[in-house]
Amino acid sequence: MPEKIAEVIESSTRQFVAEVYRETDPPAFGTWVRVPHDRGITLFGLVSHVEIRSLEPNRQARALGKTLEELRREYPQIPDLLTTTFRAQVIAYADADGQVRQTLPPHPAGVHDFVFPGTPDDVEQLGRPFDFLRTLVSSPDPSVPVDDLLVAVLSNLHTAHGRALSRLLDDDHERLQSILRRIG
Fold first, then answer.
1. Number of other residues whose CB lies within 10 A of the CB of residue 95
2. Which of 65, 79, 146, 152 has the least CB density, counted as fewest CB within 10 Å?
3. How far apart are CA 109 and CA 93, in angstroms?
4. Rounded (10°) angle between helices 146-156 and 173-183
5. Could you please report the per-residue DSSP string of 78-124?
6. What span, in angstroms and rounded, lies between the C-alpha atoms of 52 and 20?
């Protein structure tokens, strides 16, 4: 299993927020992440929002007019003043027997559970039968442009999977064409 990249800091059965470890790059928008749960299940989520901000809520980062190299040399403390978090929509889970279910899990991720990037095997298991696409289309996170998330997800699955999306959006051909144009 890949190394952990983050830790859950907020959680519900529908989504979780995780803080990325400093030495780790955040996962990309639309990629899969996994959270092993102490109840024997593994939650799978799609990254739907990534944010870098000041660690202190009342202190905003300021423009300094320096290159990244100059910042590292002259202000080495800056990384300690920032935090990176991401939100993932929970789309599926694997039960204790390893059976993947493309539905919401019975329990949310625990606060302080570790988050790992999705593996190629995870992505393959989660690709079909595409029930997660229905969840994304019919119950989207209201703060995320769902079509953009669909584009990112389908791009990350390495094949267009247009037929599954076509069935979901069969009455909205313009929307389907817009999504498919952005994939390729």
1. 14
2. 65
3. 11
4. 50
5. GGGGEEEEEEEEEEEEE-TT--EESS--SSPPPTT-EEEEPPHHHHH
6. 10
Query: Counting Cβ atoms within 10 Å, is residue 179 exposed (0-12), middle (13-18) or buried (19+)?
Result: buried
Q: Where are the domains of the chain?
A: 6-183
Radius of gyration of the chain (CA): 18
pLDDT in tens, 141-174: 888 888 888 888 877 765 434 555 666 677 777 8
Contact between residue 146 and residue 168 where contact means Cβ atoms under 8 Å apart: no
Residue 108: count of CB within 10 angstroms of its CB: 20
